[in-house]
Amino acid sequence: MNSAISTVPPVPKGNFPHYMLKETYEQPEAIRETLRRHLSSDGTRIVLDSSKLSEAEIAKFTRITIAASGASRHAGLAGKQMFEDIAGISVEVEYASEYGNRNNLTSPDNLVLLITQSGETADVVSAQREAKLKSSKTLALTNVQDSTVARDADAVFYTYAGREVAIPATKSFTTALAGLYILALYFAQCRGVLTSEKLKASVAELEKTANLMGQTLPDFDSRLKPLARRYFMAHTFFFLGRAVHFPVALEGALKLKEISYIHAEGYPTGELAHGPTALLEPSFPVVVMATRDTTDEDSVNRYEKTIGNLKTIRSRSECVIVIATEGDVEVTQLCDEVIFVPAANELLSPILEIVPLQLLAYYIAVWNHYDVDRPRNLVKSVQQE
C-alpha cells in the first residue's frame, strides 16, 4: 500500500521520533474522517465520492474481484469477508500483478475493486486497464484524489488518511479496512438488504472502534516497546489467524519484514499443522490472533479452535505472543505474552488487532537502529510491473 511520494516531504513530525509512529497515532482520526465523508448529510445513507454507476446498477453485480498488492491486498482479504457477510456478494481477491494472467475474472456481472493507497501502483493500474479492455466496471478505493486509478474508475471511494510519509503502511491500511466495511454497507444498501437500524448500528460500531483505538494506543505503545526488546534479535516469526484475522497475521508479518528485516510468515492458524509446524522449536516466536466477539457464534467457534491450536503451539515454542480480547482468562495460561485489545465487532476487530503488530515491528526496528521510515530497497509507490 503505497503513495506516489518518492522523497520524504517537509511534514513536521511533532514530538514523534519517526513518521511511522506519528502516523500510527493518526489512525483513529483518519478512520473517523473516512466514515464522516461517506455518510449523507442526514446520516441515513452511505455515499460514494463519485460514481458513474447508479445504485440499481451496483445492485446487479453478483461478484466482486479485488485486485491489489501488498498491504492493500491484505485489507482486501479482510474486505472479502465483510462483503460476503454484510452484503451477501461473492468476492475473489487477486494479486494485482497476477490479475492479467487469468482469463475468467471478468464478466458483465463482475465488478473489479482496485485498492491502492497512491492510485498509481503500476500493477493496479495495469489490472484496471485489463479489466476495462474486457468491459468490466471498476471501483477504486484510494487515498489520493485525482490519481490515475481514480480518474479511470467508474466509481471512486476515497480514504481520508491524509499524507502518509513513512514507507510502511499504517493509517492507509486501517482506513482501507474501514473503507471496505463502509463499502460493504453501501453494497448492502444498493441490494436492499440494509435496514436503517442496521446502518445506524454499524456506523456506531465503526465510530466506537476508532474511539477504542485512540484510547488504547498509549497502552499498546508502552507495552510493545519492552516486549520488542525481548525479540529484536530473532531471525524468524510466525503470525497466525483465522477467518478475518488471517489478513491481520499476513499484515503483521509484512510489517516485520519491511522495517525489521526479519523473516516472517503469516498463515491461517489451522494450516500450521500442515507443514510449517516442523519448524517450531522453543526459541521460535509465534504470534497468534485469538480475539473473540461473544455476540457472534462463528467467532466463538473460531476462538475455541484457536485455543486448541494454542495448546499444541505452546508445547513446542516458549515464545508465544497472543493478541486476545480484554477479560480473557483462559488464553493467559497458553502463552508467554498476551496483548489485550478491547472487545469489538468481529468484522471490525482487525482495525484494533493490527495496532500492536505495527508497534511490535516498529520497536523491533528501533531496537536494531534501522531507518524505520525509509527501509532499504522499498519505495512508496511501485512503478514497475
TrEMBL record:
One of its GO terms (biological process) is UDP-N-acetylglucosamine metabolic process. GO terms for molecular function: carbohydrate derivative binding; glutamine-fructose-6-phosphate transaminase (isomerizing) activity. It is an enzyme of class 2 (transferase). Keywords: Aminotransferase, Glutamine amidotransferase, Repeat, Transferase. It catalyses: D-fructose 6-phosphate + L-glutamine = D-glucosamine 6-phosphate + L-glutamate. Pfam families: SIS. Its EC number is 2.6.1.16. It comes from the Bacteria. GO terms for cellular component: cytosol. InterPro entries: GlmS/AgaS_SIS, GlmS/FrlB_SIS, SIS_dom, SIS_dom_sf. Residues 54-193, 227-375 form the SIS domain. SUPFAM superfamilies: SIS domain. Signal peptide: none annotated. PANTHER family: GLUCOSAMINE--FRUCTOSE-6-PHOSPHATE AMINOTRANSFERASE, ISOMERIZING, GLUTAMINE--FRUCTOSE-6-PHOSPHATE TRANSAMINASE (ISOMERIZING). This is Glutamine--fructose-6-phosphate aminotransferase [isomerizing]. It comes from Koribacter versatilis (strain Ellin345).
